[in-house]
Amino acid sequence: MQNADLKELDKFSQLAHRWWDLNSEFRPLHDINPLRIGWINEIISVNEKKILDVGCGGGILAEGLAALGAQVTGIDLSEKALNVAKLHLLESGHSIDYRHIAAEDLAAQSPETYDIVTCMEMLEHVPDPASIVTACAALTRPGGHLFFSTLNRNPKSFLFAVIGAEYLLQLLPKGTHEYAKFIRPSELSRWAKNSGLSPSRLIGLSYNPITRTYSLGSDTSVNYLMHAVKPALCMTQ
Length: 237
Description:
By secondary structure, this protein is α/β, with parallel strands linked by helices. It contains eight helices and eight strands; from the N terminus they run H-H-E-H-E-H-E-H-E-H-E-H-H-E-E-E. It has helices at 6-14, 27-43, 60-67, 79-92, 103-109, 129-139, 155-168, 185-194; strands at residues 50-54, 71-76, 96-100, 114-120, 140-151, 198-208, 213-217, 223-229. It has an eight-stranded mixed β-sheet with strand order 3-2-1-4-5-8-6-7. Helix 4 links the parallel strand 2 (71-76) and strand 3. The longest helix is centred in the first third of the chain and has 17 residues, at 27-43.
């Protein structure tokens, strides 16, 4: 059984043709993309790195990483989203290897292959997010870096990410998120440690409805990103 919610896949597949429309439901992803990539590149230069983007969707993050000189592979279980991602390469001119495969299956085929693994805005949409974290860890080479982003689970995140973003400000379609699937940083950190990773940094992503801008900072109560490292192998004499 694949670690996927068919309703979630269908929901995003139905919107796939709008992935690169800056005025569509995916505008928030376009708005936060420079922040995500800037933070990643600040921690570890992506230039010439072999990167895997898990849950790549239509390729917004993947193309941003490729533009900085990374060798990017993107995987997703939505064929419609992948088709959109592949078509957009004709416009952007980037070279990205898009594949229709689950993270767990790729981890079994190609363990310890990538310098950097990213998994953004995806963990809160799958039945078993801990399994995705484990697969991401297995796909990362020793000494490599991993980046996750998701939504915290608390009353404030319900108010801001569900009521505010979906119903009041209408930044996202109603039903985009299911509050019960939100993930506390302590939970993500525990899954990372159980997968042999060392969580390193945590940073929050906030939205200002007055200026309509996003920013990174210390407030992790709603959206947050986590950086983890896969320890290098110890050499014994």
